[in-house]
Amino acid sequence: MGPLETAVMQRLWDKNAPQTVRDVQEDIATEREIAYTTVMTVMDNLHKKGLLTRSRHGRAYIYSPKESHEEYTASLLEDVLAESGDRHGVLMRFVDRLDEDVLESLRQIVQDPLRGDDRQS
Questions:
Q1: Residue 113: predicted pLDDT
Q2: How far is Cα 105 from Cα 94, in angstroms, rounded to an integer?
Q3: Number of CB atoms found within 10 A of residue 61's CB
Q4: How far is CA 47 from the centre of its chain?
Q5: N- or C-end of the chain: fewer Cβ atoms within 10 A?
Q6: Average pLDDT, stretch 53-82?
Q7: Alpha helices of the chain — where are they, by DSSP H?
Q8: What is the C-alpha to C-alpha distance for residues 17 and 14, in angstroms, rounded to an integer?
């Protein structure tokens, strides 16, 4: 995703509720000037890419992320591993870069994957 697509997605993930183009445009406009039509185009593109779902709400669409931020990030990691050719090597180098707190979280997840949503990233 490009920077504007990322900004739109981040706002939708943060709100955790369906949003209209106007909702997202007004939110982004608190940080920088941006046209409604620009946000509308970006959200339409994200929908076409399969990252957003949308449904009619009166004359407007309301949009929601197709997957959570965590699910999206996990799918990116899965793609990277699939393309790497050496999944084991990539994972080993990734783990080598983790700090001790994250390593401990990873150990707990691997030992007890059914712990639920109390995992920390």
A1: 67
A2: 14
A3: 19
A4: 14
A5: C
A6: 92
A7: 3-15, 21-29, 36-48, 69-84, 87-96, 100-111
A8: 8
